[in-house]
Amino acid sequence: RPQWRGIIEEYRDRLPVAPGTAPVTLREGGTPLVPAQKLSELTGCDVHLKVEGANPTGSFKDRGMTMAITRAKEEGAQAVICASTGNTSASAAAYAVRAGMVCAVLVPQGKIALGKMGQALVHGAKILQVDGNFDDCLELARGLSDKYPVALVNSVNPVRIEGQKTAAFEIVDMLGDAPDIHVLPVGNAGNITAYWKGYREYHQDGPAARTPRMWGYQASGAAPIVRGEAVKEPSTIATAIRIGNPASWTLAEQARDESGGFIDAVTDRQILRAYRLLAAQEGVFVEPASAASVAGLLQAAEQGRVDTGQRIVCTVTGNGLKDPDWAVAGAPQPIVVPVDADAAAERLGLV
Ligand code: F0G
């Protein structure tokens, strides 16, 4: 069986790439769609998880980045830049290595998970920590790319959205149609925009008979779309979606309204509960921001907004290893034992 070739080769006819273009790829995409037993039981629905943490750098960003870096290379760029809460920078840094380019990243000081910082560092990116939040970083990145010879690879770059829409294609290809509902976390709002574009295209062109309702969830301390105004000092433990003024705000509202969905908020407490449930009951370790989709689904079910018997896909956007602090915090200390089977068995409660 041939290896999955990455999203550009797998979906070439549906992406804006020239016939002769050689992709810059780490063979991203083709991620697992995992049936979620516990969530199905809790909601009375057929729930699946699209596990985007299985991408090469551990998040969905790789789908957009293969497109953005392929395009930047084709246009002769020698350097790329992005603002990031961590995952975009990790992905940009890795793909820039593949393309032989310099990568600069702007991150909010002290507010990105250690694993993501480690990725950008080990891939050799130039990291600037900005005394501000993500929104400030993005403004600075835009300013730099306007004035200096460096290509912007944030999701305000439309080819990023093109790459990310392939996740919707994969879901339809795997399920045979679109689900009834698609749930995902919302930060800068590029991903909800991308999924909606993908579902719409597959519906227009035949592979899907319908489109899903799009349900987006922001963290309650960083929920500008829900509140209807920018949040000056966004705050949440889910640092990946700690964003107060999303770049794709209007497009996210379009996805919401055209699909008959909604965008709502979940608290950090709900996010952490869903984070633990996913790990302990589904065997899927995600980062806190990713658990916002599942926290949202559970909240909607409790509110009586989920009719039973529906097919639901939750995107879990990033790998739990990126931000393991929350897994360790509050967990019991490991037990120390001598090299002795009887003593170990006793500690395990086997005798
Ligand atoms: N989940 C994770 C793990 C993310 O890293 C992000 C965004 C989102 C969800 C939200 O997606 O922005 O398209 O609405 N992370 C960006 C970054 C902002 O810089 O890595 P979105």
Write the layout of secondary structure elements.
Layout: H1 7-10, E1 33-35, H2 37-43, E2 46-51, H3 61-74, E3 79-83, H4 87-99, E4 102-108, H5 114-122, E5 126-130, H6 134-147, E6 151-152, H7 158-164, H8 166-175, E7 181-185, H9 190-205, E8 213-219, H10 224-227, H11 249-259, E9 262-266, H12 268-282, H13 291-302, E10 311-316, H14 325-328, H15 341-347
Parallel strand pairs: 2-10, 3-4, 3-6, 4-5, 7-8, 7-10, 8-9
Antiparallel strand pairs: 1-2
Helix pairs in contact: 3-4, 3-7, 4-5, 7-9, 8-9, 9-11, 12-13
Ligand F0G is lined by residues 59, 61, 84-88, 155, 185-191, 240-241, 287, 289-290, 317-318.
Q: What ranges have pLDDT less than 50 throughout 5 or more consecutive residues?
A: none
Continuous helix count: 15
Overall average residue pLDDT: 97
Write down the domain tally: 2
Q: What CATH architecture of the largest domain do you see?
A: 3-Layer(aba) Sandwich
| Structural class by SSE content | alpha/beta
Taken in chain order, the helices and strands follow as HEHEHEHEHEHEHHEHEHHEHHEHH
Largest sheet: 6 strands, mixed
CATH class group of the largest domain: Alpha Beta
Distance between the termini: 47 Å
Which geometry do the CA atoms define?
Answer: globular
The ligands bound in this entry are:
ligand F0G
Number of strands: 10
Percent range for β-strand residues: 5-15%
The CATH topology annotation of the largest domain reads as: Rossmann fold
Across the major sheet, the strand order is 1-2-10-7-8-9
**Helix percent band:** 40-55%
Q: Using only CA atoms, what is the Rg?
A: 20 Å
